[in-house]
Design goal:
about 500 residues; alpha+beta; eight-stranded mixed beta sheet; three-stranded antiparallel beta sheet; 15 helices; 15 strands; elongated
Length: about 500
């Protein structure tokens, strides 16, 4: 679908994003210190992380495989020759005075990813976002501003945690596109299993570069919004910064390139410092680390281990199972949910894929959300849910009774068949029994019959409801509709 016109007050917004994603290794990128979140401050940093003289880094091989998997996931060129550099700057939470990163030869080169913007809405569209590069680096520590009143502490547990920094092209033109892009990258890294990407813990955060300009003029001066760690804050921060920049330009002012922080309480951005350029960091090759060479065999071995990507599975759900684009997107919200759906379909057959999708997206996800559970913690496994779907499919029960059975499945460890038998919930398909109920309903609701004969279709639905109520929901709805029309006629 063509991208809509996204001008704001006559200005075009230009957005590029740098995502910092922690890789879920057991130890740090250059040391054997643990990476677990939540430990007491400064208990998970060793002499390598702290930059002690003579302490040499040793590369954690696991980060190479995880970075390559990401690169393959975004259709990128893989840097089979990649190397590390030092990025020099001085900050309290950077104990070595430099960050080991990849500047000259990154492990992931140019690629792209397709995003779905405004998913499920009438103005939904797909857009391709370019990936400039993705490189490995070590995380810095963390400044803690609220531990002691009027003082700032430094926790170096995070120092040396492996990161992959994902740099996009400046291809996004709205806050909606930016959020869709970050969500798509978040989905990919969790799908691949290379990161837990828990934004509240800082393992997945974004720096947003924003500028505005009039159409057919050069791009404007960009400002960077630093360390945004929720989708909601990303949207609000961009809208706030766009409004700020347009107001300045409309008043005849000039945008000054700077790094800015977003204040959610005031819903505004504020200057942190003037933006540095690459030469401010005095990059140079790291003398303590040799280049990394990924052989063709190693690259092929990683390719062979790659799972089916979210975009590929979505297309499978549409092409093979006949699901809508919306249903396919919802069911691929996580790899675990997608796998669960496939497990059920493997049992009930592709002919019941749409029924399966409806029950998972409706009853199951509704119950999980209400109880603050994920699909991994669902009390109803794929086999037990399949039993319910098969009984609806073969008309043993109808969808309304199916909801009752689902509730019993949720609260017990019984099968659908056991619940149906114990509760006496089998659907009535006996034509004679259904006709008897219909005749009684017609005799007691002559006014509704007359309304229907007079052309009011809603009256017919009311009669169907009365029949279903009289049968305690057990009558086959299709038979009820057919016999009711026949008997009224």
């Amino acid at each position: 679908m063509n991208t809509p016109n996204l001008l704001i007050d006559g200005y075009e917004v230009v957005i590029g994003i740098e995502i910092h994603c922690q890789l879920n290794t057991q130890s740090k990128i250059f040391s054997n210190a643990p990476t677990a979140f939540g430990a007491s401050p400064n208990t998970q940093a060793n002499i390598v992380d702290l930059g002690f003289p003579g302490a040499l880094p040793v590369l954690n091989e696991a980060v190479i495989e995880k970075a390559v998997m990401f690169g393959l996931g975004v259709n990128a060129q893989i840097g089979q020759y990649n190397s590390f550099d030092r990025k020099n700057y001085f900050y309290p939470d950077l104990p070595k005075g430099y960050q080991t990163t990849q500047m000259t030869n990154p492990i992931v080169g140019k690629g792209h990813i397709d995003i779905l913007v405004n998913a499920g809405q009438k103005n939904e569209y797909t857009k391709r976002i370019g990936i400039t590069r993705a490189h490995l680096e070590e995380d810095a520590g963390k400044s803690v501003h609220d531990a002691v009143p009027h003082m700032t502490g430094v926790d170096l547990n995070r120092a040396g945690t492996p990161l992959i920094e994902i740099v996009s092209e400046a291809d996004m033109r709205s806050a909606d596109e930016a959020v869709a892009y970050v969500k798509t990258i978040h989905e990919l890294v969790t799908w691949l299993g290379i990161s837990d990407a828990i934004m509240a813990e800082g393992s997945f955060r974004a720096d947003i570069n924003v500028s505005v300009h009039k159409p057919n003029t050069p791009f404007g001066t960009r400002c960077e919004l630093k360390n945004l760690n929720s989708f909601r804050f990303i949207e609000r921060a961009i809208k706030s910064e766009v409004e700020r920049q347009i107001d300045i330009l409309e008043d005849g002012g000039k945008i000054i390139q700077a790094t800015r922080l977003y204040d959610p309480e005031r819903d505004e951005t504020r200057a942190m410092r003037e933006k540095e350029e690459a030469n401010d960091y005095r990059y140079f090759p790291c003398p303590d680390l040799l280049p990394v060479i990924i052989s063709d065999d190693s690259l092929q071995a990683i390719k062979d281990k790659m799972p089916q990507l979210p975009s590929q599975r979505k297309q499978q759900f549409i092409d093979e199972f006949g699901l809508s684009n919306y249903d396919a997107n919802v069911l691929n919200g996580s790899r675990e949910l997608s796998d669960y759906f496939l497990q059920v379909v493997d049992i009930v057959g592709t002919q019941n894929a749409k029924l399966t999708a409806n029950i998972i997206m409706g009853d199951l996800m509704g119950a999980l959300n209400k109880n603050e559970l994920t699909i991994n913690n669902s009390p109803i496994n794929a086999k037990r849910l399949s039993g319910l779907i098969m009984r609806i499919s073969d008309n043993t029960i109808n969808t309304k009774i199916g909801k009752q059975v689902f509730n019993h499945l949720w609260e017990s460890d019984k099968t659908a068949d056991e619940i149906i038998d114990e509760q006496g919930l089998k659907q009535t398909t006996d034509t004679g029994a259904i006709e008897a109920i219909i005749k009684e309903v017609l005799a007691n609701n002559q006014a509704m019959v007359d309304e229907y004969k007079g052309g009011k279709e809603k009256a017919f639905n009311g009669l169907v409801g009365q029949v279903m109520k009289a049968s305690r929901g057990k009558a086959n709805p299709a038979q009820v509709n057919e016999l009711l029309k026949k008997l009224i006629g």
